[in-house]
Design a protein that fits this description.
The longest helix is centred in the middle third of the chain and has 20 residues, at about 160-180. The protein contains 11 helices and 10 strands. It has helices spanning about 25-30, 50-65, 80-90, 105-110, 115-120, 135-145, 160-180, 195-210, 225-240, 270-280, 290-300, and strands at about 20, 35-40, 70-75, 95-100, 125-130, 150-155, 190-195, 215-220, 255, 310-315. The chain is an alpha/beta fold. α1 (about 25-30) packs across α10, α8 (about 195-210) packs across α9 and α10 crosses α11 (about 290-300). The strands form 2 sheets. It has a 6-stranded mixed β-sheet, with helices on both faces. The chain has a 4-stranded parallel β-sheet with strand order 5-4-3-6. The relative contact order is 0.17. The N and C termini lie far apart (about 45 Å). The structure holds pyridoxal-5'-phosphate. Pyridoxal-5'-phosphate binds near residues 49, 192, 198, 286 and 319.
Length: about 325
Amino acid sequence: MLDLSGFDRIRLAHLPTPVEPMARLAADLGGPNLLVKRDDCTGLATGGNKARKLEFLMAAAVREGADTVLTQGAVQSNHVRQTAAAACRLGLKCRVLLEERLSNPPSQYETSGNVWLNTLFGAEVAYRPGGSDMAAELDAEAEAVRSAGGVPYVIPGGGSNPLGGLGYVAMVEELAIQLRDQKLAVDHIVHATGSAGTQAGILAGLSALGMDIPVHGIGVRFDSETQESRVHALTDKITDLIGAPAVPRASVRAADGYIGDGYGHPTPGMVNAVRTTAQLEGLLLDPVYSGKGMAGLIDLVHKGVFSRKETVLFLHTGGAVGLFGYQWAFDDPPAGA
Ligand SMILES: *Cc1c(COP(=O)(O)O)cnc(C)c1O
């Protein structure tokens, strides 16, 4: 079906992740059938979507003889936490840069959740002000590692480059097998999109396998035009890399109506989505990505975008550890930011 055997890969994730019904949420919404693909259960350091990307990225780091892996993200980045854990697994040092994207956040945001786990994994952590050119900062860090005699391997924010995207190409094949074996059909896929690698990998994978399922990205940072262009550019690179047909720009969709005041800022829709999914499904979403992704899904159901006979698959990209950095956002009324 799909041959990725030419790419080095180190197994880090628990795969396949389950596909499960969300029957109580579906009944509550009175909309389409809902399934959830549990990529919050990839296993690496409490799971999440970055584990799939890191299988290819860390393999490249090892092949290149790196002794230090560098990456960057927001303060409560799940990607940084999973990278720090993967580095531990492989006996590599890990150096990370965290960008202060919220101004004056509550102390939990700075100390709990992913931040505390980075420390537990022994990563070397440094901070940069919001709005910094994080890619340039990361390159400067890599240079510092080199000058000190080390061999750095730089993983971009979110692990979103063509190699990282292969993780989600592979996910599409995994999903296709599950749908066949469980005799399920999926009419739409919905998930949160940030650094673009997840959506680009999915679109490339669907193209490679000749599957025609609309993917509704729910943006968490950029306006639709910007995010769709970013996803499309990366999708092109991934289809090139694997020799799959290019994906037309018109097939790339990323909503921007669920971002609120910006990346990492809580919204009432996110708080409602996290609470509702917890209380109806016993399922934990996260405040930055999957909570806003689910807020988008709920709104699309309310708007009648899906027919009642259709089946919508929500890709749960993980991140629940971030809830501990955001408890304040669930206070009534919410405290701060
Ligand atoms: C990184 C992340 C996303 C977004 O995936 P991208 O590949 O960066 O677009 C979604 N959900 C969670 C929990 C994440 O950590």
